[in-house]
């Protein structure tokens, strides 16, 4: 019957055989035209992936328990962070040149406790409600900060007034479509000025399980993963916004965590439950910053001299290359 004159026994091509649809090996869910069906199949595929991953994890755990002390050490997972391309500007903690530069830069008086920070927080022209509330909440996080709402006044006119009133830093919150989307931080009186793109802004009322309103105590400041020379400059610039005599009785901490050149800000209150356990409550607000440029001197959009500018097509050639 193999001469092509009739169906082969056991073959699925016979008249009485059930019709089965066989997908080609290269079939992808994205090829499904129907949107609802495609979404349903994708969810099923993700669910199956989670089940397989959980089953493999349980299997490996049982094998390790069976082997006991003879179990091999756990493999370190590969991540973009730990496979980072080495940057020649990475700072050695014992580098004397870096230590000298930091002892003589614009922020040295703050770290030596010779100058107390005084911050002016302002907005773009005609800010909307969300931006206004964000500025007010940011002022409760940064001690000795004052909110001023611009009314068509240019930054080049605001900066001399800030210097005359002994402000040490100027923060400008920009917005687009009623959502805060940019932050300009200018150190007074001689700079530098950093331009950040802002995203993922969450006000206090939008944070689940938030704590009570923050107190007026000076918070502690934590800086994570600012490892390069540029990262050190940005980290010192952010740390100089806070007085360097934290009041530990307030149990409040402001964290700037750098991961893949995104700076995540969080504000928490903590409590020691025991010698090994610590409880934390997020107070808010929270936001994420992405450095766009670092400019010498104060804000000058036309004639300013830039130390560093983020150029996407030239700098973002590798996913494992980071600058902070």
From TrEMBL:
| Annotated Brix domain residues | 117-300
InterPro entries, from UniProt?
Brix (IPR007109), IMP4/RPF1 (IPR044281)
At the top level, the lineage of the source is Eukaryota
User: Where do the coiled-coil regions begin and end?
Assistant: none
Biological process (GO) annotations held by this record are: maturation of 5.8S rRNA; maturation of LSU-rRNA
Q: Which GO terms describe its cellular component?
A: nucleolus; preribosome, large subunit precursor
Q: Name one GO molecular function term.
A: rRNA primary transcript binding
Quick one: where is this thing mainly located?
A: nucleus
Compositionally skewed regions (Basic and acidic residues) per UniProt:
63-72
Alphabetized Pfam families for the sequence: Brix
Record keyword Lipid metabolism present: no
Q: Where is this region: Disordered?
A: 1-22, 48-75
For this UniProt record, the keywords arranged alphabetically read as follows:
Ribosome biogenesis, rRNA processing
Q: Which SMART domains match?
A: Brix (SM00879)
Tell where it localizes. Nucleus, Nucleolus
Stated role: May be required for ribosome biogenesis.
Q: What is this protein called?
A: Ribosome production factor 1
């Amino acid at each position: 019957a193999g001469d092509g004159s009739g169906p082969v026994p056991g073959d699925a091509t016979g008249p009485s055989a059930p019709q089965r649809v066989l997908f080609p090996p290269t079939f992808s869910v994205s090829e499904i035209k129907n949107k609802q069906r495609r979404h349903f199949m994708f969810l099923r595929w993700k669910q199956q992936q989670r089940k397989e991953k959980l089953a493999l994890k349980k299997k490996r755990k049982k094998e390790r328990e069976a082997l006991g002390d003879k179990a091999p050490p756990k493999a370190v997972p590969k991540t973009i962070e730990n496979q980072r391309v080495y940057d020649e500007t990475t700072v050695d903690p014992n580098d004397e040149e870096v230590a000298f530069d930091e002892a003589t830069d614009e922020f040295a008086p703050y770290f030596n406790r010779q100058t107390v920070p005084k911050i002016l927080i302002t907005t773009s022209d005609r800010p909307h409600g969300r931006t206004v509330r964000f500025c007010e909440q940011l002022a409760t996080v940064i001690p000795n900060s004052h909110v001023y709402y611009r009314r068509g006044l240019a930054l080049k006119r605001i900066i001399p007034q800030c210097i005359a009133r002994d402000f040490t830093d100027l923060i400008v919150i920009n917005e687009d479509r009623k959502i805060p989307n940019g932050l300009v931080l200018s150190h007074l009186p001689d700079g530098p000025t950093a331009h950040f793109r802002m995203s993922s802004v969450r006000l206090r009322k939008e944070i689940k399980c938030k704590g009570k309103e923050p107190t007026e105590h000076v918070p502690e400041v934590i800086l994570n993963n600012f490892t390069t020379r540029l990262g050190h400059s940005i980290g010192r610039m952010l740390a100089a916004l806070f007085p360097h005599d934290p009041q530990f009785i307030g149990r409040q901490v402001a964290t700037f965590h750098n991961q893949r050149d995104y700076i995540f800000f969080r504000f928490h209150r903590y409590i020691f439950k025991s010698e090994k356990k610590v409880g934390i409550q997020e107070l808010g607000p929270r936001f994420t910053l992405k450095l766009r440029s670092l400019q010498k001197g104060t804000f000058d959009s036309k004639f300013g001299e830039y130390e560093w500018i983020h150029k996407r097509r030239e700098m973002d050639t590798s996913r494992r290359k980071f600058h902070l």
